[in-house]
Write a structure and sequence with these properties.
It is a single chain. With 263 residues, this protein is α/β, with parallel strands linked by helices. Helices cover 37% and strands 18% of the residues. The protein has twelve helices and eight strands. Helix 7 links the parallel strand 4 and strand 5. The protein is globular and about 45 Å long.
Length: 263
């Protein structure tokens, strides 16, 4: 069975003090303290700002051996990309995360495409080109439009050893249906919360303001276990970061899974 890693999307949140960090913890100490409990962190800032090699070096040094990062692709690669700029964007991104890669701490590059990224011939070609530029690093893709949920896409991901990101999110028209597929050596699940009311009108805080209950977490236990039989590593990441809910849900899911395993 593959190793199941648990983490959160981002870690540098002031409102996590009292949940994960002691009150008054300097932000410079967040990552080392985070790494004392978790062995995986999903980096979000790299979407907004192209990664910097010096920062990547410090982050790699702030975590112990065996720790992995999932680094979200910069918006110039997934939201603003074009065939004319994709080569330079990918090259800059890879250079920025090189210290993490060299340290053996790159779990995957996470490419999250927006809802507006439709299943078209041009977009399929773009994904193929971008994956080709990232051949030497592990890649995971999250499609936020249901149009991409088709066997031909899954087969293409398997051929490239690219992980499909399975999501838990509100059941809304056009959004991907919940899956638990493995298309690469790494399996990936992202929990976004089920906040239907704020999904389209909320910001990146209120959209994910949701706390899963035990029954909702329990739904995923057999699915994650089945995925672990198909991949070397399963990454389970909670994105419902508001008020430390992601931390609470990771802890509770781990407890549920440990109890079922008789640990």
């Amino acid at each position: 069975m593959g190793k199941i890693r648990f983490g959160t999307s981002g870690y540098s949140y002031k409102d996590w003090e009292g949940v994960l960090y002691p009150a008054g913890t300097p932000s410079s100490e967040y990552l080392p303290r985070y790494a004392q409990e978790f062995d995986l962190a999903e980096l979000n800032f790299s979407y907004y700002k192209m990664p910097d090699a010096s920062l990547s070096r410090r982050m790699a040094a702030s975590t112990g051996s065996g720790f992995l990062f999932s680094v979200k692709g910069h918006k110039s690669m997934t939201h603003e990309g074009s065939s004319a700029t994709v080569n330079s964007a990918a090259a800059a991104f890879l250079h920025g995360i090189e210290p993490i890669t060299d340290a053996g701490k790159l779990g995957t590059v996470l490419l999250q495409f927006p809802f507006s990224f439709h299943y078209t011939a041009a977009n399929r070609t773009y994904v193929h080109t971008l994956c080709g530029l990232l051949t030497h690093v592990p890649v995971a893709i999250e499609f936020r439009n249901r149009e991409w949920q088709r066997d031909s896409v899954y087969d293409g991901l398997r051929e490239r050893d690219v992980a499909l990101v399975n999501v838990d999110e509100p059941e809304l028209p056009g959004l991907p249906e919940s899956t638990s597929l493995v298309t690469a050596a790494t399996g990936y699940v992202r929990f976004h919360g089920r906040n239907r009311e704020n999904w389209w009108k909320g910001d990146n805080v209120t959209r994910y303001d949701y706390c899963y209950n035990d029954a909702e977490l329990q739904e995923w236990v057999p699915r994650i276990q089945a995925m672990a039989l198909q991949a070397a590593v399963i990454m389970v990441v909670f994105n419902n970061h508001s008020k430390g809910q992601a931390v609470q849900n990771v802890r509770r899911l781990k407890e549920i899974m440990a109890a079922e395993a008789g640990e």
